[in-house]
Amino acid sequence: MNPRDFLTLANALAAGTTEAAWRSAVSRAYYAAFHAARLLLRDLGFRTPRGDQAHAYLWMRLSNCGNARLEAAGQKLQDLRRERNRADYDLDIPLPQVSVPVRIGVAAHVMQTLDSGRVEPVRTQITNAIRTYERTVLGVVTWQVP
Question: Is residue 105 a contact partner of residue 111, using CB atoms and an 8 Å limit?
């Protein structure tokens, strides 16, 4: 399955007539960007953990990858997760339909930016920077030869 399929579904849900559909759209938009980030890091040779730890793993590494555009995408991924959590858990706070396309647009932009990390010289630059970040800041190495 392609992460962009979640973005397509998010757009369809955003056109729905219920707040439940709009909230689901926000959630699917986040997961489109999440899985795109996960695939990028996997393709660069990083082992993303499973479960809850994967969320912070991805945005922290992107936010420290040495490329300003991708670092901003990492921060936006974290923002999208926060919005997804609100949509999924804070049911007492209304989520207006008008806000949903903005969040979907952010997810689409994050995914487009992540695509730029697949080509040289950016690919090597961010791989090396994330490896350095893991080793010197986190004290853990999740990179293996791809």
Answer: no
pLDDT in tens, 1-11: 899 999 999 99
Model pTM score:
0.95
d(CA 65, CA 27) in angstroms, rounded, equals: 25
What does the alpha-carbon distance between residue 80 and residue 7 come to, in Å, rounded to a whole number?
A: 13
Instruction: Find how far residue 41's CA is from the centre of its chain.
Output: 11
Nearest to residue 69, comparing CAs of 7, 111, 103?
111
Mean pLDDT (the chain) is 96
**Of 88, 96, 105, 118, residue with least CA distance to 29:** 105
Query: Which residues share a beta bridge with 143?
Result: 46
Nearest CA among 38, 2, 39, 32 for reference residue 14: 32
Handedness of CA 110, 112, 115, 116 (dihedral sign): negative
List, in order of start, the domains of the chain with CATH numbers. Answer: 4-138 (1.20.120)
